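Can anyone check this?
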Amino acid sequence: MGSPQVDWTLEHLASVADAQPDAHPLVRVDRDDAEVFGAGDTVDMSAPIRDRKAALKKANYVGATLASSERSPIGTEYDYRVDDVVRVRVEGLHHSEWGHIDPTGGKGVLFSDLVNTIQNAIDSQAAFPQVAVPDTQYTHLLITNDDPQSAEYADFYRYSFDIEFSGYADR
């Protein structure tokens, strides 16, 4: 798999994926290597969304990638302020195109509810998230840079946001 921050994010979305109806599954993807989390399959979420219509007919997708990692020295020792950013993308296809999103909720899931559920699962871990990064302790995380993009696509739904992990590292 990819970075510990991406793995942490996708692991904490397991409850959201498990709670989805069997008829409208949610698949978690490590966008750094296109690997479906825990399945060994691949889905290239960097390809244009219209080119992935066949995949979106099978499920809704949430993908994560490590967008940036910054270290700033603090104090007189070998200590650093750490700010790592994971970019999350949620995608789906309208039910009229054989997808799993329905604005009324009758023939699919409500996209806004899916995004809110994903963000709430992340927010529930906002204080001292336990990410397996050696010598690093994150003190908090924030969801930032909300970017709804569904209006750009007719039958496709897309929403992106960042998770900013902040903390300290001892080296």
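Reply from J.R.: I decoded it. The chain is about 20% helix and 40% strand.
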